Amino acid sequence: MPVLVKVSQNKNSKTAAYGKWYGHVVSTKTMSYQELCKHMSEHNSVYGEDVCLGVANKLQSCMLEQLLEGKKVQFGEFGTFYLSVKSHGTEQEGDFNLGSNIQGLFLCFSPSRTDVNNLTSKMLKKKASFMNIKDLIEPKNKEQAPSNGEQTSPNGGENTNGNSSGTPDGDTGNGDAGE
Predict the structure, then answer these.
(1) Residue 134: other Cβ atoms inside 10 A
(2) Which residue among 33, 83, 159, 179 is the one 20 to 30 A from 153 at the CA level?
(3) How far apart are CA 113 and CA 79, in angstroms?
(4) What single DSSP character describes residue 145?
C-alpha cells in the first residue's frame, strides 16, 4: 500500500507559504498496540500473540523507566528515543525554577542513520511509493489508473505529480484527512 498524501492549500495569510499547495500524509487507521503484537506473531514467529504482547509490554515499561532516569534508549537499528523539555526562559540562572519554568516533557525520537536501516527522510522517500488520496476518490482517467493503486513513474518509483510529503515551511507532513 502506498503512502497516501492529501494536497491542500495554505490559507494562513500571515505566512510566506500563503496560497501554496502542500502535501500532508493521510493515515487510514491507527494500529493498536495489541494489533501490532498480533501482526508480529503472524510473521512466521514461533511465539504467539500473547508472548509478543508480553515482551512488548515489558519493553515499553523498561524503556519508559530508563528514559525517566535520564537515559537515551537505542531501539536496535530503528533509532533512539530520548526526552526533551520545553521551558520558559529567565533573565538570571538563579531565577529558573524547575517547577514553574518547565512547561512540558516530551518523548522524542531520532531515526537511525546506519547503512543497515537508514531512516533518514531521503532514504524513507526512496523506499516509499506515494498516491494522492484524491485519486482514490476520483481517478482522473480510469484507463490510466494503476491496477494496484500505486502511482509510480519511470524514474525509480518516485511520484512525479508535484506532491510532496513534507513542506518547505517546516511541516512534517503529519496532517490527516480531517484538515
Answers:
(1) 15
(2) 179
(3) 8
(4) S
42-81 exposure pattern, b = at least 16 Cβ within 10 A, e = fewer: eeeeeeebeebbeeeeeeeeeeeeebeeeeebeeeeebeb
Cα separation of the two ends of the chain: 22
Q: Is 48 strand, coil or helix?
A: coil
The fold of 3-137 is HU Protein; Chain A (4.10.520)
Copy the grid coordinates of residue 112. 537511525
Contact 85, 104 (CB under 8 A): yes
pLDDT tens readout for residues 61-119: 999 999 999 999 988 878 899 999 999 999 989 999 889 999 999 999 988 776 666 77
pLDDT digits (tens, 9 = 90+) for 110-132: 887 766 667 777 888 888 888 88
Which pTM value belongs to this model? 0.56
For 141, the grid coordinates are 482517467
Question: Is the CB of residue 83 less than 8 Å from the CB of residue 105?
Answer: yes
